[in-house]
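A quick aside before the break. I want you to see a complete sequence-to-structure record at least once, exactly as it would be stored in a machine-readable document. Don't worry about memorizing anything.
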Amino acid sequence: MNAVDAVVLLAYASLVVELTLFPIPSEASTWQLLGATAPTGGVGADDALQAARGRSVAQKLLRYALPTTLGVALWLLPLACILAPGVAVAVGALPVAWLVGPGVVLVALGRAITFASVLQLRAQRRRGGQGWLFRRSRNPGLVGMFACYLGLCCLFPSPLLWLGLPLYVGNMHARVQFEEAHLQARLGAAWSTYAARVPRYVGRVRG
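That is the input. The structure line, written in tokens, reads:
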């Protein structure tokens, strides 16, 4: 195992720690969408999240469970390449020298951003206020995950992993839209003000 493999394994380990010790519930997670029933009225009953929850089981499996399952499988592909080097050869994930440096930076930076955003969000829920990252991005944790996935593409440049990048980004972007529509319906003007000032992912903070 080389230094690059060690960085990637640490990234995966940090993800396991995050998901097991510091979980952040999501209104638009696959489990939430699959287990929910049709909207029953009340605040936010007509927003995009409620509409997604009201789809048939078959539609949910096709539109939400399948892309998520593929995304998880592709997320695990670099791990398989490290643990079973023959996999890297089979899927064309052999390293490209000039991509290694950017890949390591993106993986490490992405995981750091996501982990920090999780800790800040948990602190916000306990004590109120708003963390530094959330004053600059409405979804800093996802920015970190996108960066990490791009870094993995650089380190394990399999066509499968690169083809999975737009799938992963598109799937997660749809979940963000669901959650933000729900927050808009629930919080009203407060959310509108925040969303007008802070970019969804990256960009210039207004005001």
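Two observations worth writing down. The chain has one domain: 3-197. Confidence is low (pLDDT under 50) at residues 40-46. We'll return to this after the break.
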